[in-house]
From TrEMBL:
This is LacI family transcriptional regulator. Gene3D superfamilies: 3.40.50.2300, lambda repressor-like DNA-binding domains. Keywords: DNA-binding, Transcription, Transcription regulation. InterPro entries: HTH_LacI, LacI/GalR-like_sensor, Lambda_DNA-bd_dom_sf, Peripla_BP_I. Residues 14-70 form the HTH lacI-type domain. Pfam families: LacI (PF00356), Peripla_BP_3 (PF13377).
Length: 344
């Protein structure tokens, strides 16, 4: 039985039946087009007529009714550690664009300062009817939670045997960054690391240390500081590094957000970037292009990441063969924040 127009006060709410009548097609064709599944099934002219009729009538699909009929919400939750980080906005945009092509929508959830995974997941299941989960740069869930998320979730930039994972080639990106600074003549290189004790950040520090040792550059404990992903915290940490008696000539940051704090500290101390200090970031977020000079950083291709993330998750949800993706290659983007060290 098809939808019927609904009256709200004096106003009639259009349905897919109204759209079908206006476009001169079947209701099934309307469902295919508005559900993003028309390719090869509905002709181009009919698609255009349906979209035009929907616009003219002001029709919006009833997602709640669709969920009840199909038993599926087609809602994916992207869980990140900090929604205030502009990089995750780009990650969300890439995932949302890829998901939309497959008829899914994406909601963004943060786990910052939230200890109770169980409560968060239960609320999301109830409130949003979440069908699939993408856990980005998150600590691996406990065994009971992994069981709860079985066949519903994947990890990105993290690994567990119990859950499909999509990895980033963090080692390659961090190594390229360190080699770049060393080739510019820097030997006093500090590391402003991210505070979360997650594998992706531990790996960055391992590569930092190993690269120094490979080039016979001393590893210094006083050049190692950790910071939360806030401007104030990274500013305080950078200020501490830059006021050392033998201050670093370069600071490697675990994210572009941390690098922004270094810029602020350098400005407060009347240091010029890159003349007095070279600074690097990680992510290639919007922040990297707002800073002056623009930031040398490691770029994570969020469009490709979004496509692979959605492809992997849908293979899990639809119980298809899981695709194999090599670790996503990251690239060094050299901009104006790094320069050769001057002989003094």
């Amino acid at each position: 039985m098809g939808e019927e127009s609904t009256d709200i006060g004096q106003r009639s709410v259009p349905t897919s039946v109204d759209v079908a009548r206006r476009a001169g097609v079947s209701q099934a064709a309307v469902s295919l087009v508005l559900g993003g599944k028309a390719a090869g099934r509905v002709g181009k002219k009919s698609q255009e007529a349906i979209l035009s009729a929907a616009r003219e009538l002001g029709y919006a699909p009833n997602s709640a009714a669709r969920t009840l009929r199909s038993g599926r919400s087609h809602v994916i939750a992207l869980v990140v550690p900090d929604v205030n980080n502009p990089f995750f906005a780009a990650v969300f945009e890439g995932a949302e664009r890829a998901a939309r092509k497959e008829g899914y929508s994406v909601i963004l959830i943060t786990l910052k300062d939230i200890q109770d995974w169980q409560q968060l997941i239960n609320e999301a299941f109830t409130t949003y009817a979440v069908e699939g989960w993408v856990l980005y740069t998150m600590r691996v869930p406990t065994a009971p939670l992994q069981e709860l998320l079985r066949d519903k979730a994947i990890l990105v930039d993290g690994f567990t045997d119990e859950m499909p994972s999509l990895l980033l080639d963090i080692q390659h990106g961090m190594s390229d960054m360190m080699q770049h600074l060393i080739q510019l003549g820097h030997t006093r290189i500090a590391h402003l690391a991210a505070a979360p004790d997650d594998e992706t950040f531990r790996l960055r520090h391992r590569v930092y240390r190993e690269t120094l040792l490979q080039h016979n550059i001393p590893y210094r404990d006083d050049y190692q500081l950790r910071s939360a992903f806030t401007l104030e915290a990274s500013y305080q940490a950078a200020y501490q590094l830059l006021t050392l008696a033998d201050a670093p000539s370069a600071i490697v940051c675990d994210s572009d957000m941390l690098a922004a704090g270094v810029y602020k500290a350098a400005y407060a101390l009347h240091l010029s970037i890159p003349r007095d200090l070279s600074v690097t970031g990680f992510d290639d977020s919007l922040v990297s292009r707002i800073l002056v000079p623009e930031l040398t950083t490691v770029a994570i291709p969020t469009d490709t990441l979004g496509e692979q993330t959605i492809a992997l998750l849908l293979s899990v949800l639809e119980k298809k063969q899981t695709p194999h993706f090599d670790p996503l290659l990251l690239s060094l983007v050299v901009r104006g924040s790094t320069a050769a060290i001057e002989d003094k």
